[in-house]
Amino acid sequence: MYRQIMKFQHIFLTTVLTGVTFTSHPHLVQAQVCPQNNVVSPANQSRVIRQARFGYQFNIPKNYRTLAVRENGILVFDPNSFQLAQCLLKNKAPTEYPKNISIYQTPINSPNRSLTEIIKQNDPTADKLTNIKVANQAAISYISNTLGVEKKVALLSRDRKYLITISTPYNFNQGRPTTVFNQGVFNRVVSSFAFKQ
Question: At the top level of its lineage, which domain of life is listed (predicted)?
C-alpha cells in the first residue's frame, strides 16, 4: 500500500509540474539590464570633492558624481555612467566600470627617488613625459599603455609617501587612440587639484 501511495504521488507531482508554465517577473528581468546611455555634458558650476585621508581636494562639475573604490581611489562619472556603475555593482556584473576619470594613491617604497623614476618603475609603458605644475608643486603628465591607452598626471603627496595619479582613458577611432575622454572634466580636476591647508 505504501509503495502505491508513493507511486501515485510521483505521478501526480510529475503531471502537475509538466503543466506549469514558468514565467519571470518583469521587474526581475529589467533589474539585470543596465542602461548604457551617452556621456552627459558637464555643468559649468563646480563642486569640491575632498579626500580627507590623503589631504587633497579637487573640483568636478556639479552634475557629476564620484564613487570611492577601496580605500585609495575615487572615480568621477557623468550621471549616466554613474547610474550604469551603480547597476553593475548592484547586479555584481563581472565587468569593468564605464569610462571615468580616476584619482588614486600608490604607496612609494623609496621616497628619495625622483618623480620620474617612481613613475617609470610603477608604469614601464609611461611615454611622452612632460613636466608640469599641479597644486603648486612638480608633477608629470604622460601617456600610459598598461590597461588601454590613458592620459595620466602624477605628483607626490605632501609627505612623499604616496604617488597620486589622475587618469582618464583615450577615445578610440578605427582601433587607434584619438582624443582624451572627457578632456574638459579631466582638465578641471587637474587644474583645481590642491592640498588642504
Answer: Bacteria
Set out the domains of the chain in order of their start, with CATH numbers: 2-195 (3.40.1000.10)
pTM of structure? 0.80
Nearest to 76 by CA among 86, 85, 65: 65
pLDDT tens sequence across 62-105: 999 999 988 789 999 999 999 999 998 888 877 788 999 999 99
